[in-house]
Amino acid sequence: MRFKSLFLGIVLSLMSVSLAFAGGVIKIGFFSPLTGFAAADGTSAKHAAMLAVEKINATGGILGKKVKLIVYDDAASSQQAVAIARKLIQENKVTAVVSGSYSTPTRASAPIYQRYHIPLVVAYATHPSITKAGNYVFRIGFLATVEGKAGGYVAAKVLHAKRIAVLTMDNDFGRSLSKGFVEEAQKSGAKIVANMSFALGAQDMSPFLTKIKALNPDLIYCTGYYSEGALTVKQAKSLGIKATILGQEGFDSPMFLKISGDAANGTIITTDLNRNDQRPIAKWFITQYRKEYKMEPDMVGASSFDAVYVLSEAIKKAKSTKAAKIRNALAHIKNFNGVTGFIKGFTKDGEVVKPVQIQKVVNGQFTYFGVVDKPSIITPKD
Fold first, then answer.
1. Could you give phi then psi for residue 180, rounded to 5 degrees?
2. How many domains, in total, are found in the chain?
3. What's the mean pLDDT when you consider all of the chain?
4. Are residues 246 and 367 in the same domain?
5. Cα(101)–Cα(109) distance, rounded to whole angstroms?
6. At 157, phi and psi to the nearest 5?
7. Do 112 and 99 belong to one domain?
8. Range of the domain at 9
9. Sequence-separated (6 or more) residues with CB below 8 Å from residue 179
10. Residue 162: left (phi > 0), alpha (psi -120 to 50), or beta?
């Protein structure tokens, strides 16, 4: 009898789950670089997106339906991102898509989603032209020029740097960030004593850093991903450079800390994730990410989680899986409590408005340093 009762209980439980998701599934497409030079970022993005789907499904799904994440690896390639877009739309017939990838593949594929009226939420790709694809494209991470402006504000107004050297990675990401940085730093009274660029994947920063050292700047602003960032801080330390190094979200990775070692201490970055955030959603994400994946979360993951979660919120508000209604609901998202911060909403161009987090590396860990929430800095210009 005890066995029959237990069996009946299990059956009833399974029936209740089946009934909860009786309406089938809502398919959300997702692409990120799971192989190649950007695999660490892409994997973090995928992990966090999966975590968001797990949380959504554990609390009843969306509109009584279970969410299914359709994941593809774009290897940070424009060509692959374009092929993936066509497959997600034509074969997988997804309701909406989240980009967990870099600017170049996202830029290439965004016009395709726009053409087919598939809502696209971009997690962390920063290039300004992405949202210019059209009104079905929204960005949950920072527009590059906004984050760059926040960096310029921090450099000049918070750190009081007077002489600044800029070291820029020569791609969409780096150029867009440095453009916003230089404009705001100069506007705030700082002098740019050098503005140098290096190629993606550079293996030696010492020629640039040697020239920068001779100029005796107060601060070095560096754009680049975690590998270039780690190389910069290590070689700057070996050259005896005393200037503060200010990075950006590309540095925000456990790999940056691992590769840099002690040289990372003192580095300050603009980013999307505050590790000391006491809000319940942020604490839950950080704790759960560590528990499930046995590693530290980063801004790439936090932004990808928020992209999936904001999209799910829009579908709920739309009370429909029709693309036009979801797009309209996204456009009217207000005061959303995300992992990356309090999202005030989107501009008419689909750009997010939210505070920029400032972190500092202390004892090998990213820690709270401050926040930029000045409206003139964090509000993109339409």
1. -65, -40
2. 2
3. 93
4. yes
5. 11
6. -100, -30
7. yes
8. 2-142+277-350
9. 144, 145, 148
10. alpha
Based on the fold, state whether residues 78 and 193 are members of the same structural domain: no
For tokens 């527009």, the residue is 143
The answer on pLDDT for 2 being more than 50 is no
Angstrom distance (rounded) from CA 204 to CA 380? 35
225-239 per-residue burial string, b: 16 or more CB within 10 A, e: under 16 = bbbbbbbbbbbbbee
User: What pLDDT shows up at residue 5?
Assistant: 43
138 and 149 part of one domain: no
CATH number for position 111: 3.40.50.2300
pLDDT, tens digit, for every residue of 89-119? 999 999 999 999 999 999 999 999 999 999 9
Map tokens 């600044």 to a residue.
164
Tokens of 140: 């949950």
Query: Pick from 17, 24, 40: which is nearest to 300 by CA?
Result: 40
Q: Compute φ and ψ for 130, nearest 5 degrees.
A: -60, -50
Distance of alpha carbon 381 from the chain centroid: 20
CA–CA distance, 143 with 64 (Å, rounded to integer): 34
Q: Which residue has the tokens 């909403």?
A: 345
Please name the residue that has the structure tokens 């237990």.
6
